[in-house]
Amino acid sequence: MPDTLLFALEASLNGLTAGVMYALVALGFVLIFKASGIFNFAQGVLALFAALTLVGFQSGQIPFSHLINATLGTRLHHFGWNMPTVLAIPATVLVMIGLAILVERFILKHLINQEPIILFMATIGLAYFLEGFGDIMWGAEVKALDVGLPKGMSMAVDDATFNWFGYGFYIDRLEIWAAGIAAVLVAVLTVFSQYTKQGRALRAVADDHQAALSVGISLRFIWVLTWSIAGIVALVAGIMWGSKSGVQFSLSLIALKALPVLILGGFTSIPGAIVGGLIIGVGEKLFDFFMNPIIGGATENWFAYMLALVFLLFRPQGLFGERIIERV
Amino acid sequence: MLYREAGDFKTSYVADSQTFPIKFDRYGYYVLLGFAFLVMPLIINDYWANSIVVPFLIYAIAALGLNILIGYCGQLSLGTGGFMAVGAYASYKMMTAFPELNIIFVIIIAGMVTACVGVLFGLPSLRIKGFYLAVATLAAQFFLIWLFTRTAWFYNYSPTGMISAPTREVFGVPVTGPRASAVSMYMICLCFLVASAWLARNLTRGSMGRKWMAIRDMDIAAEIIGVNPLIAKLTAFAVSSFLVGISGALLFAVYLGAAEAGEAFGIDKSFLVLFMVIIGGLGSIFGAFAGAAFLIVGPVLLKLLLVNSLGWPTDLAAHLEIMIVGALIIVFLIVEPHGIAALWRTIKEKLRLWPFPY
C-alpha cells in the first residue's frame, strides 16, 4: 500500500479515538437537552470540575487551602494522606450529585418557563462560576490524573498492523480504553432510559413537561437526576481527557468542540452524539493531514465549526435530530 | 419633584419623540456630555485612562454593536472577538499601507471591512437560529483568529507575529503609538463612542430598528407582515459588525498599541462583550453603557479591594472575579432578565411619581 494512504489511515484511526472523546462530552449535552430542553454550556467546565475534584480527593488536597491561607495566614495544603481511586471516584460522584441538587435549587427552579436562550446564557454564567470556583477550591495549576488506566503506545495494534501492512500504527492504549468505556456508557444509558421507571419518567419529561407533571412525575427530581447523570458523564469525560493531557483549564474548551458534534448528530439523539463525534474526529484529522502542506497547520481549531456551519445550511436538524417544525 | 414631565409641553411630534422627553433627563444628558468633553480631559491622568476610562469607552462601542445584534435583532453571536480582530487587522493594514491617510478614516474603513465580514458570516442566520447560529458564529471566531495568526500577510511578515500601531496624528496631536497622551486617547475614543451611540439610537428607533425587533420577537410572523428577513438580518449583522470593528480597531490602535490575534481577541473577549450586553440589558442603548461600565469598573474595584487592601495573591483575586461575574450573570437572569437598564427604568418611574407611591 502507498505510504500516504497508510498515513491517512493512521490519521483517521487517531481521529476515531479523538472523536470518541468528543462524543463523551457531547453525550452529557444531549442528556440534559433531552430532559430539560436546556443547552448546557457548562458541560465542559463540569468535566473540568469533576476531574479537579477527583485529583483533589486522590492526593488528599485540602479544599480552599489557597483561600484559607490568604485570609488566615496559615500554610495548609494537604491532609497528608492519599485516597485510593476506588474511594475517590464514588466521593466525586457524590460531589457531582450535590452540585446537581444545588444547580436545580438555585438556578433551574427560578428559570422555569423562561426562553431557551435565557437558560443557555444562565449556563454560560454557571460555567464561569464553576471555573472560578474549581480554581479556588483546588488551585489552578496543571495536575496529573492517574486512575490506573493503561497509557502509552498499544503494542498489540502496532504489531498487528505491522504484520498486515508492514507499518505499525501508533494508537494510545488509553484511547482504546476510552472507546470501550464510551460504548459501555452508551449501552448503560440506553438501557436506563428504555427499561427503568426513572428512565421512562425522564423521557416523559423530555416529551412534555405539563403532561409529565399531570401524571405525577416530579419535575424537580427528574432535573436533579438528569444533572447528576450529566455530572457523572462529565466525570468520565474528565477522567479520560485528564489522564490524556493533564487536568487543566483547556479541558473546559473541549465543551466548545462538542457543539459542532451536536450539530452534526442532532441535539436530541444519543447515537447522533457518537456518530457526530466520530465524524468530527476523523474529519479534522484527515483535513489537517491533507491540507497541512497547503494552508498550514492547526486547522483543528476551526475545522469542526466550519464543517458544522456548512452542514447546518443543508440539514439544520442534524443527522438524527427530530425535524424542526415552526408555527406562528 | 424635579423629575417629571409636568409643565413641559410638547407642541410638535418631533419634540414628543425625542430621546429624552423629560426636561431633567435632557439637561442631565447635556451636563454629562459637557463633563465628558470639557472637564474630563483636564482631570484625566494615565492611570485612570488606562485602567478604567479608555477600556470602558472602547468596550461600550463593542457592547452597543453586539446589543444591536442580540438585543434588537435576536441573533445570538459568539464571534465578537473575531470581528474585533478583523477591525484591528484591517486598521493595521490600512495604517501601514496608506501612511498619509487620517486615522479617523482608517478606523471607519476598518469598521466597514468588518461589516462586510460580518455580513458574510451572518448569511447562515437566514437558515439557522438560536444556538445553531451561536455555533456558526463560533466558526467565525476560531477561523478568523486562525487566519490572522497563520497568514503572515496580515501582520506584514513581522517575526513576532504581532501587529503594532505606528504613530498617527489628528490635528497634529498623536493619538496612536507610544507618544499618544492619555487625553488624546480619551478624546478619540469618546468621539467615536458618542457617534456610535447616536447612530445606534437613531437606527434602532427608525424603521430599520422596528424591523429588527419584529424579527427578534417572531421571525415568521415578521416575514408574513412584510419584513424582509434577508435585509433585516443582514443589516443587523452589518451595523453590529461595523461598531464591533471600530471598537476592535480602537482597542488595538489606541489602547493596546500592539496585539496578537489569539491573545487579544480570543473567545474570552466574545464572552466579555456578551456579558456586558446581558448584565446591562438586552435591547437598550443605556444598557450597553451600563454593562460595559459594570464589567470594566467592577474587576478593577475588586482587585483594589482584594489585592491592595486585603493582600490576597493576584491569582486568587482573578479566580474570585470569574466566579463573581458568573454568579452575577445568573442573578441578573433570574432577578432582572432585562439587566441594569430595567433597574434604571424602575428607578426613574419611582422618581417621576415621588413623593407619591403610585
Automatic annotation (TrEMBL), chain A:
CDD domains: TM_PBP1_LivH_like (cd06582)
Keywords: Amino-acid transport, Cell membrane, Membrane, Transmembrane, Transmembrane helix, Transport
Transmembrane intervals: 12-33, 45-68, 88-108, 117-140, 176-196, 217-241, 261-282, 294-314
Subcellular localization: Cell membrane
A Pfam family that the UniProt record links to this protein: BPD_transp_2
InterPro entries in the record: ABC_transp_permease, BCAA_transport_permease
Principal cellular location given in the protein's record: membrane
Superkingdom to which the source organism belongs: Bacteria
Membrane topology: Multi-pass membrane protein
PANTHER family with a match to the protein in the record: ABC TRANSPORTER PERMEASE PROTEIN (PTHR11795:SF451), BRANCHED-CHAIN AMINO ACID TRANSPORT SYSTEM PERMEASE PROTEIN LIVH (PTHR11795)
Family assignment from sequence similarity: Belongs to the binding-protein-dependent transport system permease family. LivHM subfamily.
Protein name, per record: Branched-chain amino acid ABC transporter permease
Species of origin: Roseinatronobacter alkalisoli
Lineage of the organism: Bacteria, Pseudomonadati, Pseudomonadota, Alphaproteobacteria, Rhodobacterales
TrEMBL record, chain B:
UniProt topology in membrane: Multi-pass membrane protein
Transmembrane region(s): 27-44, 56-89, 101-123, 130-149, 180-200, 212-231, 237-259, 271-302, 322-344
Record's subcellular location: Cell membrane
Source superkingdom: Bacteria
Keyword field contains Metal-binding: no
Classification via InterPro entries: ABC_transp_permease, LivM-like
Keyword RNA-binding: no
Keyword annotations: Cell membrane, Membrane, Transmembrane, Transmembrane helix
Major location (coarse): membrane
Pfam families: BPD_transp_2
Coiled coil residues, start to end: none
Name of the protein in question: Branched-chain amino acid ABC transporter permease
Organism annotation: Roseinatronobacter alkalisoli
Lineage of the species this protein comes from: Bacteria, Pseudomonadati, Pseudomonadota, Alphaproteobacteria, Rhodobacterales
